Amino acid sequence: MKNSLSLSGSGFDGLFDDYDYNISTIFPSYDANPCTNTQSINKNFVIIVYVLVFFLSLVGNSLVVLVICYNKIKRSSTDVYLLNLAIADILFAITLPFWAIYKAHEWIFGTFMCKVISAVQEVNFYSGILLLACISIDRYLAIVHAMETVTQKRHLVKFICVGIWIFSIMLSVPVLLYRTVFDSPQKFKVCHEDLGPQGTDQLRIILRVSRHIIGFFLPLLIMLFCYSFTIKTLCQTKSSQKHRAMKVIFAVVLVFLCCWLPYNITVVVDSLMRSNIVNQTCEVRNQVDTALSVTEIFGFIHSCINPILYAFIGQKFRNSFLRILVTKGIVSKNFFSRYGRGSVASTSGNTSTTL
């Protein structure tokens, strides 16, 4: 069966399109039906996407880190969250060459790297949504309740970010425990989850769904709550500065949802099917497998989109980056005066040197 190994929550379920697995060999607790998925994604196309995302994410997020670190004095609490978000995307980008090689051939990097690379992708996913949830709370406090003194306590924000990283790692522990390398029936080495003895599958599926509820849907509800009141407040104010900053943040959140929400919904459906809560046929099974392959690509692409949003929507990001180039003598002051427009002088808790 093609691509029917989708039991891991780490987002690599679509990496097996070109192998024909016997599900009863790897997951003996499931009844194997002779379903053949004829809708697999072209392997070369996926490899090209991985390579492009790798370069765009590495370059773009490195520029974000540069801009935020350079503006230490004007750095806001939102900038600290965005800095951590960029670091998470850089770490994930580093793993993409491994997955591209895996897609082209087989897993050749051993069990240790299989666990590490898989866990890094998992941590990136959870830290991303949790950091965006914190940004929504930060903007809610700063705009709705005008609590600038709270949102500007950067030492507190740093502790929150550390807590997010620790919590994301905890959510990724099952990947470290169960991800391993083994031979497929066709003698290809694969990096995937080994479910082990029969009888524990239900518990692991419950853990998988729980991780996605805690690590995605709950932060999503927090974001929806905070931004609904934030939008209401912004509609009652004429501050163009607040509107510009929020426009970028809304774009970041919207893109995250477009990239990751379809995958998470598909993962939940897949889990319900594998636990026999939802009946499945060969046709439905193949559709879900294909959906996992497609939606995970959108999730991977997300890691390189945020810097593009900052560059094209965020005037302050462009100005901050141009100021760095002027300081280093790469571009002239005349060039900056022509293209670097807009105010970047505010250090208010409602604004950000990045946005």
TrEMBL record:
CDD domains in the cross-refs: 7tmA_CXCR1_2
Name this protein carries in UniProt: C-X-C chemokine receptor type 2
Gene for this chain: LOC115474904
Membrane topology classification: Multi-pass membrane protein
Gene Ontology BP annotations: calcium-mediated signaling; immune response; neutrophil chemotaxis; positive regulation of cytosolic calcium ion concentration
Residue stretches spanning the membrane: 47-69, 81-102, 125-144, 156-178, 213-235, 247-265, 297-313
Functional summary from the UniProt entry: Receptor for interleukin-8 which is a powerful neutrophil chemotactic factor. Binding of IL-8 to the receptor causes activation of neutrophils. This response is mediated via a G-protein that activates a phosphatidylinositol-calcium second messenger system. Binds to IL-8 with high affinity. Also binds with high affinity to CXCL3, GRO/MGSA and NAP-2.
Recorded GO MF terms: C-C chemokine binding; C-C chemokine receptor activity; C-X-C chemokine receptor activity
UniProt superkingdom: Eukaryota
UniProt-annotated location(s): Cell membrane
Listed GO CC annotations: external side of plasma membrane
Family: Belongs to the G-protein coupled receptor 1 family.
Entry-linked PANTHER family: C-X-C CHEMOKINE RECEPTOR TYPE 2, CELL ADHESION MOLECULE
InterPro entries linked: CCR1-9-like (IPR050119), Chemokine_CXCR_1/2 (IPR000174), GPCR_Rhodpsn (IPR000276), GPCR_Rhodpsn_7TM (IPR017452)
Domain G-protein coupled receptors family 1 profile: 60-310
Pfam families per the UniProt record, alphabetical: 7tm_1 (PF00001)
Subunit relationships: Interacts with IL8. Interacts with GNAI2.
